[in-house]
C-alpha cells in the first residue's frame, strides 16, 4: 500500500512538470494547428541555461534557493526570446505552405538546438549542485521531499496564473478569439501575429520553468533530455485533448501517475519478465491507445474537425 | 547556342539516344568502384556501398512521405526489423543459418507486416499525429531491442549480435575476394554490384509504381484526401499500402545491411538515422525519384566531407574547436530548415511539386 501511495506522489510531481510542458504544446496547437516539435528542446535549453547560471553563481556567498531563483530568472527571458525567434524564423514564413513544410522545419529546429547545446555543454550529464534543502517528510509510510512539494506547489500556482491570464485578461481574450478563428479575430482588430508570438513566448516561459524543475528533480541535465520529455508532454497534451488548457494539465498529471505506477508495478505483475527500464514505453502506449479510441482526448471536442 | 539547345532537345528524345544514355550511365556505374578504388582508396568503395543502402532506404521512405504525403519519423524501425531478422536467422545466436534467398523476401515480408501493424490503427490520424506516433514507434522498437536480452536472450541487448553470416548466393560468398575472368573483386566490390542490382530493381519498382493506378491514388491522397475519397479511392487502404510498401523496402535494406556489416546493435537504429533518411528525401525533392537519389548520395558523402573540417579548424584557429562529427547533425538540421524556407520543393523537385509550391507562394 505504501508503495502505491509513494508511486502516486512521485507520479503527481512528475506529472505536474509534464503538464507545464504540455501546456506549451497545446497552446501553440490550439492557435496554429501545428505541433511545435522544438518545444522539448526549449525545455532542455531552459534547464541548461539555468544550470550554467547557477554554476556561475555558486562562487558568491548566497543562500542556495536564491541562486536557483536567479538561475530561473535568467533562463526564462532567454527561453522567451528563443521561442519568439523560432516562431519568426521557422514557422511564420510557412504559415500558408503545405502542412508538411512547418513540421519539417520544426524537426530541423529541434535538431539544431540539440546539437548547439551538445557543442556548448558537451555530451556528458551535468549535475545539479546541491543547493536546495533536502528535508524529507513521511506521510502514511510514503516519503515526500521538500523539493517535491515545492515543485508541485509552484507548478499549480503557475497553471492557475495561466488560466487567469487566458480567461480574464485582454490578452487572454485575444488568444481565445484567435484560436477559434484567426481570420475573424483579425477582422475584429486583433493583431493575430502578436497573439501567435505571445503564445510562443508564454509557452517558452513555462518550458524554462519546467526545465529547471526537471533538472532539479532528477539532479541532472543533458543535451538529449528534451526529446523524451517533449514526446511525453505531447502525449500528455493528446491524452487530455490537444488545444485544451485544462486537458493538458489533467493529461500531464494522469500520464505522470500512469508512468510511475507502471514502472513500479510492471516488474511484479509480469513476474520479472519486464523491468522498470520499460518506463519510457508507457507514454507511447498511452498515446497510441488514446489516438485509437478517443482521438479528441479526454476533454477535447473539436480536434479532428480542423482541416 | 540556342540552335544547339534545340538540337539537343530533339536528340534527347531519339530512341537510340536514350539507349546510348542508358549504356553510358550503366558503364559508369559498373566501372565506378574500380575508379574510386584507384583514386580514393578501398574505404571509399565501402562508402559507395553505404550510399546504395541509403538510396534504397530513401526510396522506401519516399513512397511514404513523397508519394503518399505521410510523415513517417520512425522509418528506421523497419530497417531495424529487417536487420535483426537477418541477424537472428543467420548467426550463431540461435544456431540458424537460413540462406540469403529466403531471408531477403522474409525480411521484406516481416517489415511489411510491421508497417501494416503500425499503420492500421494510426493512419486514420491527421499528418502531424502520425509523425509523433511513428516517432514513438521507432523509439519503442529500439528500447525493445536494447532490453530483450532478459529473461530470454533474444537480441543480446546493447552489445548487439555479431558473427552474422555473410551474404551467399549458392557457393559464391560476397565477403570473400573472388577472381572472375582474371579480375580481382574484393568484398566491397562484390557487395557494390549486389546492392547496385537491388537498388536498380527498387528504382524500377518505384518508377513503375509512380505511374501506376496506385501511384496516382497516392498523389491524389497527398493533394486532397477528401477529394480523393470522393473520386472513389479507398484512402485508408491506399495509405496502408504506401506504409507497408515503404516498410518492406526498409526491411530489404536492413537485411542487406546486417549481412554486409556482419554485426548489428541497437545503436545503428537511432532516431538520427530516421532523420537522416527523411532529410535525404526532403533535401532531394519529395516524390521525385532522381531528386531523392541525389539527396541520398549527397548526404551519405557529407560525413566523409566533414572529416576535412577538423584540419581546417586547426589551420584557422590553431586547435579543433568543434568536433567535426558533431557538426553533421547540426548541418542536417539547418539544411532541413533552410530548404523548407528557401526551396521547399527540394534541390531537384518534380515538375508537379514545383508547380504546387509555386502556387502556394501566391496565396
The tally of strands of chain A reads 4
Text of the CATH class of chain A: Mainly Alpha
User: What count of helical segments of chain A does DSSP give?
Assistant: 11
The N- and C-terminal alpha carbons of chain A lie at a distance of 48 Å
Provide the spatial order of strands within the biggest beta sheet of chain B: 1-2
Portion in beta strands of chain B:
under 5%
* Strand content bin of chain A: under 5%
Mean pLDDT of chain A: 85
**Biggest interface pair, residues each?**
A-B, 48 and 47 residues
Integer count of domains of chain B: 2
Give the proportion of residues in helices of chain A.
Answer: over 70%
Task: Describe the protein in words.
The complex is a heterodimer of chains A (307) and B (363). By secondary structure, chain A is mainly alpha-helical. Chain A is 73% helix and 4% strand. Chain A is built from eleven helices and four strands. In chain A, the strands form two sheets. Chain A has a two-stranded antiparallel sheet. Chain A is globular. Mean pLDDT of chain A is 85; it is low at 303-307. By secondary structure, chain B is mainly alpha-helical. Chain B has two domains: 1-40; 43-270, no CATH class. Chain B is built from 15 helices and eight strands. Chain B has a two-stranded antiparallel ribbon with strand order 1-2. In chain B, a hairpin with a 2-residue loop joins strand 6 (178-180) and strand 7 (183-185). In chain B, helix 2 runs antiparallel to helix 7 and helix 11 crosses helix 12 (289-306). The longest helix of chain B is centred in the C-terminal third of the chain and has 27 residues, at 235-261. The mean pLDDT of chain B is 81. Classes of the chains: A mainly alpha (307), B mainly alpha (363). Chains A and B meet through helix 4, helix 9 and helix 11 of A and helix 6, helix 11, helix 14 and helix 15 of B.
